[in-house]
Each structure stands twice: as structure tokens, then as C-alpha cells.
TrEMBL record:
InterPro entries the UniProt entry points to: CT398_CC_hairpin, Oxidative_Scav/Glycosyltrans, Zf-RING_7
TM segment ranges: none
Residue ranges annotated for the CT398-like coiled coil hairpin domain, each copy included: 107-187
Origin organism lineage: Bacteria, Pseudomonadati, Elusimicrobiota, Endomicrobiia, Endomicrobiales
Keywords per UniProt: Coiled coil
Span of domain C4-type zinc ribbon: 201-233
Organism: Endomicrobium trichonymphae
Protein name: Uncharacterized protein
Entry-linked Pfam families: CT398_CC (PF24481), Zn_ribbon_9 (PF02591)
Highest rank taxon of the organism: Bacteria
Length: 236
């Protein structure tokens, strides 16, 4: 009877190609979600910067509103002051004077508010500027990382194509029935359809093997399978 060992050794080598291929394919399949994650972190930072800018714009428009009302108070004061001279009676005079005082105190409240706003605006402009600088830097880093990552994936794709081509050539050395048996086993078993016998145990699942199986594997006249995981056993 033929000894299958040389062919099983070839099959074991073929499995190394398969392991490499599936490792590379796994890395490639993770790429889209990793790129997406990086893009999301950039979007998040952009939104945070936009929020800071909106706050800055809001404070500025509030300041403009205050300046408009300050202007109207000033106009009211000068209108009332002009009215003082034409006051016909003492009571009218006093009433106009009160109006001037009221407008004056309103005016100083608004002036204080404007000063406070200017202070806030100044602080906010520093915050916005540094957030924008940070965003620019972050965007540069993320875009660079994505580009490098995409190049890496391209390299992996080239590599996997090359390994697959080698595998296609290599598999011609193995008879079809054995190859089919192996591929069927491999697909349901973590990418490994053949394993070595290590210290009387199956190298795939770790189960102790019956002496008869070890003996059969040693003779190698036929395919021998692990009782537990059904992988092809190879005694080197
Ligand atoms: Zn096993």
C-alpha cells in the first residue's frame, strides 16, 4: 500500500498557506470599520469646534444688541436734556430730570454689561482660536493615518493575491480526494483540517489518541482522523 506521509506533509504545508491567507483576509476585513472610526473621531472634533464658534458668534450678536440699546438710551438722554429748557413748569422740569436720571442709570447698567461681554468675547476668541488650531492639527494627523492605513491595506491585498496564487500552484501537488477532504474539514474547524500528533495527543484539539490511531497514523496507509475533532492526523 502507498504511504501517504509525503502527500500529507504537502497538505500540512498547504494549510500554512491557508492560515496565512485567512490571517491577511481578517486584517483586510477590519479595515473599513477602523477607517470609519477615525473619520468619526474627526467629525466629533469638528462638531465640538463648531459649538465653540457658535457661542462666540452668539456673544458678539448680544454685544451688538446691547450697543443698539445703549445708543437709544443716549439719544433719549439728549432728547430729554433738550426738553429741560422748554419745561413750562417746575413739575414738568422735575419729571424730565427724573427721566434723564433713569435713562442715565439704565445706560450705566448696559455699559457694564457690554464690558462684561467684551471680557467674555475676548476669552472666547482665545478658546475658539486654540480649538481651530487643534482641529487643523488633528485633521492632518487623522488624514495621514487613514492614508497610511489605506496603503497598508493595499499592500496586504497584494500580498494575499500573491499567497493565493502560490497556494493554487502548490495544491496541484496533492490528490483531489485528499484535498477535498481537507478543505471540507478545514472550513468547519478554525481553518485547520490537518494537525500533527504531539505526545500522543491530537495537535488540533488536544485529545489523547488511541494507540491504534497513532499506529495507523504512523503507518500512513490511509487517512486517519481524530476521534474527537475529526481532523486528519499526521505523524511526522
Ligand atoms: Zn482532535
Amino acid at each position: 500500500m502507498d504511504n501517504l506521509r509525503p502527500e500529507l506533509k504537502l497538505l500540512y504545508e498547504l494549510q500554512n498557506y491557508d492560515i496565512r491567507i485567512s490571517d491577511i483576509r481578517r486584517k483586510i476585513s477590519k479595515a473599513p470599520s477602523l477607517v470609519e472610526e477615525k473619520k468619526k473621531s474627526l467629525e466629533y472634533k469638528k462638531t465640538a469646534t463648531e459649538t465653540k464658534k457658535k457661542n462666540f458668534v452668539k456673544l458678539n450678536s448680544l454685544r451688538k444688541e446691547k450697543e443698539v440699546s445703549l445708543d437709544s438710551k443716549e439719544k433719549a438722554i439728549s432728547a430729554h436734556s433738550a426738553g429741560l429748557n422748554s419745561a413750562k413748569s417746575n413739575d414738568v422740569y422735575k419729571a424730565v430730570l427724573l427721566k434723564i436720571e433713569k435713562a442715565g442709570s439704565d445706560k450705566s447698567v448696559i455699559e457694564n454689561e457690554i464690558l462684561e461681554l467684551m471680557d467674555k468675547i475676548e476669552k472666547e476668541s482665545v478658546i475658539v482660536k486654540s480649538a481651530e488650531d487643534e482641529l487643523k492639527e488633528f485633521e492632518k494627523i487623522i488624514k495621514n493615518e487613514i492614508k497610511e492605513f489605506e496603503n497598508f491595506i493595499k499592500k496586504l491585498e497584494k500580498e494575499v493575491t500573491a499567497v493565493e496564487k502560490e497556494r493554487e500552484e502548490y495544491k496541484l501537488k496533492i490528490s483531489k480526494p485528499i484535498l477535498m477532504q481537507y478543505e471540507r474539514l478545514r472550513d468547519g474547524r478554525d481553518g485547520r483540517g490537518i494537525c500533527l500528533i504531539n505526545n500522543e495527543s491530537c495537535g488540533g484539539c488536544g485529545m489523547m489518541l488511541r494507540p491504534q490511531l497513532i499506529n495507523q497514523a504512523y503507518k500512513c496507509h490511509e487517512l486517519v482522523f481524530c476521534d474527537n475533532c475529526s481532523r486528519i492526523l499526521l505523524q511526522k
